[in-house]
Structure formats: structure tokens, C-alpha cells
Design a protein that fits this description.
The chain is an alpha+beta fold. It has 22 helices and 15 strands.
């Protein structure tokens, strides 16, 4: 409050101005009126004049008393306006007077401050223009119900300040009549509840997080009021016991159906002790769900004391640990199976402390090194001393690398046993413990004697080499047979094989496909064995029937190779090496997508070598003509990728026929 006569109130808000009329001003006005008066007093007697003067004096006193009363009323009016200013404009809530159509007729300063505007900017505006778009339906329903039911209404919605920020507001409205027009109006208050909303939302978020955490951990909380036997459960407990939350939590007296009898007896005993002397409890119990399934749970409870140190309430939690128990059991079973598997594999187990170099081992570990009983001590150096000299450096290098990178230590080497017999072993170790610097402290692994496997591998390699030699000999024999029947094409298949492998290598075919392509290229014309030699070496133009016989060599070659059971796609490549992308080739007129890549490579290599070499029916055309042919028919007869690689090989000098 300001001092009397001060024209400002709280918060610097300006009070309404009040005009004061002084006694001196009234006197001046009165004298002016008397001067203009036409009343004459000269005819009056002295007694009459005295009476008149007396009356005037009395009337003057009356006027002065009325003037004093007027000043008091004026001061009271000013005080009332000041109180109105404080109670209305400076109230802690916003006030609105709204028309039936929602137009703001009047608003106090607090309402204007809340919305960040001047009071004059609120008047004649629609309140809905200041309500957040998504909440306007709430406002319209609220206003409709107010005018229809004439009952007070309240709602919560978001308002939009002038700067665009949002304000959560609680609106309470009553219906009234305008004092002048008599029309219905709405008197509404607006309270800022943003803080309360934030607190509510924060509390709700924390509650949701707690529910999620309980769900993740399979742990529910509970509270038991001892006097009323009222139990409260969190949502997770209802889930654990498969009970409907709408039915409420069972009282403690009803808990007997939730656990196996012997476990319920243990729970009752723990609860009694907790109530009596406040001792907390933690029990592993078997809970019975509605469907009869048994779940293993850990129950915990603590006492809350009331006046006089008496226990009035127990609170606690119940955690479903069935999965953990099952996991532990599965781990035990896995360890048992692992032990059996290791024993079946005759593997030794070891654990090496890389800081001290000392190792723990199973008996089988030392037996692999030729010792019938465990040695008193085994170190990394002990192991290294048993590795034969030729393998020792590589083993030690692998060990250092595994430690520096924290990777597994996986190797094969030869050892010399205690009885001086050399054996092959396979060892596998993995980091199992690290220090605070993330350096490996422990390596854990297994070791196996693989001597028999190594011997079998050696036999297999020898057998493979023998088989490969026999196959190579058979291939060379077939090549010579073809060259004997067609001496003009001597070396053709070998050159086609060299170019095919060069192309395939640039196209990144794997080793298996490279080997199969090489074999197919060496014998791709093997079918010419069935074509008469005079046709093969005929110098002139071939007749249609003769050309038809030559075209059979692809199919004949396929039948020969197929019967010899060559690996992979060797036979198919031989069959398709005269097919063309546009389907104009033979024997099956296959188009590009139906032809094997190896056959497409063979086709290009075959044409390039044939055109650049001498034939009975024409002289050699040269490599330039051969490259011109495949370039001209790139994408039509020949695969474009194969042609591009072949052209690059010759132009870059990476390849040339020998």
C-alpha cells in the first residue's frame, strides 16, 4: 500500500485517479451566483435582516457539514477503489468476464501478466485465440456446458502466451448477468498450474520408470498395514501371481494360497520375528500362480515403527528369480556336459597366470606331455621347453601377440614328450581375466594331442596328390589325342587355358573355380575325337553336313567329361563354350543369363586364340583382328565384362600368347 495521496499501488501498478473539490472552489462559485442574483434587501427591516443573516449563517454551517460529509465519502470511495484495485487487478489469479460468444469483456492485470500482454490488448478478443490448438475442444465443451447447465464448470488446458510459450491453466467459471444489459456473461478465474503439472508429470515419469524397472528385474513391492490387514501391491506383483489388479491385493491372512505350505510357514515365522523385534527378513520361497505354475521368488521385508516403538507396518519386495535359478541349473548342466565332452575328446585343461607364468592344469594336460601324474609346478617356460626347436619361435610369437591384442591363442605345434617321442598338439587359449589397465591377467584353454589327425591329413594329402597326378595325366593324354587328330590346332587348348585363367584371375574368381576352369579349358575340344580327322584338317570350305559334324564336338566332349566325374562345372563349361549371348551359338542356343560364367570366359579366349593362330582353311589373322572381333560383338555374342577384361590384358601388356 502507498501512502495517502500516493497514486501507485503494489508492483508499481497505477491506481485510479480521484478528483478533489476544495471548499475555496465552492465559495468562489457561490459568490458568482449571488452576484448574478436580482434579490434586493433594502426594503427589509433590521430585525428581518438579522433573522435572514442568522438563517444564512445556519445554512452555511449546514453546507460546510455536508461538504465535510462529501469529503469523507470521497475518501472512502478512493479507499474502496484502492481495495478493488488490489483485490481484482492484483489478485493472485486471473479474472475474465466473457460474453456468451467467448469475447473478453474485461480482464484483470494478473490475467494480462499471465498471458504476457497489456490489459487493453485482451479486451474484445476471443479467449479461444489464446488457447493451445489441441486443447480448444476442452474449452468449447466447458463453455457449452456452462451456458446449458448454468452450473459452475472447471477444466485444465494449455494457454499460449504472446511469446509463444505454453502455460498450463486451471479455469473455473460461473454464469452471471451483466448489470447494465442483463445479458448472460461468464465470470472466470485462471490459475497458473504449470508447476503442479510439471511435478505431476515428473512423478508420473518416475512411477513409469519404477514400473519398467520392476518389470525388467521381475521385482514387485508391497506394503502391509498390520492393524487393518490391508495389503498394497505394485503392478509387477499382480503380474508375478497372475492376478487381476482390479480385484486388489489379498490380505496377509489370504496369503496361504500364494505359497507352498512349508514355505508359507517359514514366511509367517519370519514376519512374526520382524513385527516383534524389527528384524528384517530375506527368504527364498516357492510361489504358486493362478495357473498352478511354481515360481521361485525372493521375499524381503522390513518393519516401520509407530509411536512407542511399536511395529505398525511392514514394507518389502518380492523378486521372481525363476529364470536365474533355471539359468544356474542350465549352467551346471552345461559344465557337466562340457566336462564329459572334454574327457571324451581327451583334452587337457589349463589356466595360465601371465603375470607369474604359473599354470593350473588338469591331469590329462600333463599326460599329453608324457607324465603319468601332475608335476609339482608347471610354467609357461616349462611348456615352451617341450616345444621342438623348429616350432618354438612361432609359438612364442603367437603367445606375445595374443597377450598384446587380447585375442585368443590358437596354434598347432610339435612337442617332445617326457619319453622323447615327438607328438603334434593343438592348443586354444582365451583371455579370462583382465586387470584395471585392461591387460590380460589369465588365459584359460584346452590342449589336445592331434598326432593321429596329422598323420591322417598327411595320408589324405598324399592320396590327393596321387589322384591329382592321375587326373592331370589323363587330361594330358586327352589333349595329346586331340592334337594328334588335329595337328593344326596343336597347343590351342593350352593357350586357351592360359588366357582363360588370366581373365578369370582379373575377375576375382576363387581358387576352386579357377582350377575347374583351367581343367575345362585344357580339354574343351576333347569332343573332336569323334569328328573325322579329314574334316578337321580340310583346307577348304566345309559343307553343311561337315560343319554339323564339327558342331557335335561340344556335346561329345560333355559326354566324355561327364562320364569321368570331373569336379564342379567342368563338364558344363565344355558343353557351353560355343554358346553366344544372343542365342545364336550351339549346341543349345542358350542366351546370356542361362550360360555359365566359365563358359563365357572360354568362349572369348577360344575365339581370340583361334583367330590369332593359323588354321587349315585360312592363315593367322593376328591378335588385332581377334580383339576387333570380340570388341565389335561385345554385349551381342560375348559377355561385356569378359571382353573388357580381355581387351585390358592385351592392351596393358599384362598378357600375351607365348
Amino acid at each position: 500500500m502507498g501512502k495517502p495521496g500516493d497514486m501507485t499501488g503494489r508492483a508499481g501498478k497505477k491506481k485510479p485517479e480521484v478528483m478533489e473539490v476544495s471548499g475555496r472552489d465552492l465559495r468562489s462559485e457561490a459568490e458568482k451566483k449571488v452576484t448574478r442574483s436580482t434579490v434586493k434587501t433594502s426594503h427589509l427591516k433590521k430585525q428581518d435582516l438579522d433573522e435572514l443573516v442568522h438563517e444564512l449563517e445556519v445554512h452555511q454551517v449546514e453546507l460546510e457539514m455536508q461538504n465535510d460529509e462529501l469529503r469523507r465519502s470521497q475518501a472512502e470511495l478512493e479507499a474502496a477503489k484502492e481495495r478493488y484495485f488490489e483485490l481484482y487487478d492484483l489478485a493472485p489469479v486471473g479474472y475474465f468476464t466473457l460474453s456468451e460468444k467467448g469475447i473478453i469483456l474485461e480482464a484483470n492485470l494478473t490475467a494480462a501478466d499471465m498471458l504476457g500482454v497489456a490489459p487493453r490488448d485482451l479486451r474484445a478478443q476471443r479467449l479461444s485465440s489464446m488457447i493451445y490448438k489441441e486443447d480448444q475442444d476442452i474449452y468449447y465443451l466447458h463453455r457449452q456446458q456452462l451456458f446449458e447447465t448454468q452450473a459452475p464448470q472447471a477444466c485444465e488446458m494449455r494457454m499460449v502466451r504472446k511469446d509463444g510459450s505454453l502455460l498450463w491453466a486451471q479455469i473455473e467459471a460461473n454464469l452471471a448477468r451483466d448489470g447494465r444489459s442483463g445479458k448472460p456473461v461468464c465470470h472466470a478465474t485462471m490459475s497458473d498450474i504449470s508447476g503442479r503439472k510439471q511435478s505431476t508429470e515428473s512423478l508420473r515419469s518416475e512411477h513409469l520408470m519404477l514400473e519398467k524397472a520392476e518389470g525388467i528385474a521381475n521385482i514387485g513391492s508391497w506394503e502391509w498395514d498390520i492393524a487393518t490387514d490391508t495389503v498394497k501391491w505394485s503392478d509387477e506383483l499382480f503380474r508375478i501371481f497372475q492376478r487381476d489388479p482390479h480385484e486388489g491385493a489379498p490380505s496377509f491372512a489370504e496369503h496361504a494360497v500364494l505359497y507352498l505350505p512349508e514355505d508359507m510357514a517359514r514366511l509367517r515365522q519370519a514376519v512374526e520375528v520382524c513385527i516383534t523385534d524389527g528384524t528384517p527378513y530375506e527368504l527364498e520361497l516357492r510361489a504358486v500362480r493362478k495357473d498352478g505354475e511354481i515360481r521361485v521368488c525372493v521375499a524381503r521385508g522390513v518393519a516401520e515403527m509407530g509411536p512407542g516403538g511399536r511395529t505398525v507396518r511392514l514394507v518389502g519386495s518380492l523378486q521372481d528369480i525363476t529364470r536365474q535359478k533355471q539359468a544356474v541349473e542350465l549352467l551346471r548342466e552345461s559344465e557337466s556336459r562340457l566336462k564329459l565332452a572334454i574327457e571324451a575328446l581327451e583334452s587337457g585343461i589349463w589356466e595360465l597366470n601371465v603375470k607369474t607364468g604359473k599354470a593350473w592344469r588338469s591331469l590329462r594336460h600333463d599326460q599329453i606331455f608324457g607324465y603319468m601324474t601332475l608335476l609339482p609346478e608347471w610354467t609357461y617356460q616349462t611348456f615352451l621347453d617341450h616345444v621342438i626347436t623348429e616350432d618354438r619361435s612361432e609359438v612364442d610369437s603367437n603367445y606375445g601377440y595374443a597377450l598384446s591384442k587380447g585375442t585368443e591363442w590358437n596354434f598347432e605345434c610339435r612337442i617332445r614328450r617326457a619319453d622323447q617321442v615327438v607328438r603334434w598338439i593343438h592348443a586354444l587359449g582365451k583371455p579370462s581375466e583382465y586387470d584395471d589397465k585392461n591387460e590380460v591377467v589369465m588365459l584359460t584353454g584346452i590342449i589336445r594331442d592331434i598326432t593321429e589327425r596329422k598323420l591322417d591329413e598327411e595320408k589324405l594329402v598324399n592320396s590327393y596328390n596321387a589322384t591329382k597326378k592321375a587326373l592331370d595325366d589323363a587330361i594330358n593324354t586327352m589333349v595329346k589325342i586331340v592334337e594328334l587328330r588335329d595337328p593344326y590346332t596343336a597347343g590351342h587348348q593350352q593357350k586357351v587355358a592360359e588366357l582363360s585363367i588370366a581373365i578369370a584371375g582379373e575377375m576375382k574368381l576363387d581358387d576352386t573355380r579357377l582350377n575347374q576352369l583351367h581343367t575345362a579349358a585344357l580339354i574343351h575340344d576333347i569332343g573332336k575325337m569323334y569328328v573325322p580327322s579329314d574334316i578337321l584338317s580340310k583346307p577348304g570350305k566345309l559343307a553343311d553336313i561337315e560343319l554339323g559334324l564339327i558342331k557335335t564336338h561340344s556335346r561329345s566332349g560333355y559326354d566324355i567329361v561327364k562320364s569321368m566325374d570331373f569336379p564342379g562345372n567342368v563338364a558344363v563349361a565344355v558343353l557351353q563354350h560355343h554358346e553366344r549371348l544372343d542365342g545364336s551359338g550351339y549346341p543349345n542356343q542358350l542366351k546370356g543369363e542361362d550360360t555359365l560364367l566359365e563358359a563365357k570366359i572360354l568362349a572369348v579366349a577360344d575365339v581370340v586364340e583361334a583367330m590369332s593362330s593359323h588354321r587349315p582353311y585360312r592363315p593367322a589373322l593376328g591378335i588385332d583382328k581377334a580383339l576387333e572381333e570380340i570388341s565389335k560383338n561385345r554385349g551381342k555374342l560375348y559377355d561385356p565384362d569378359v571382353v573388357d577384361v580381355c581387351m585390358d590384358l592385351f592392351k596393358s601388356g599384362k598378357f600375351e600368347f607365348k
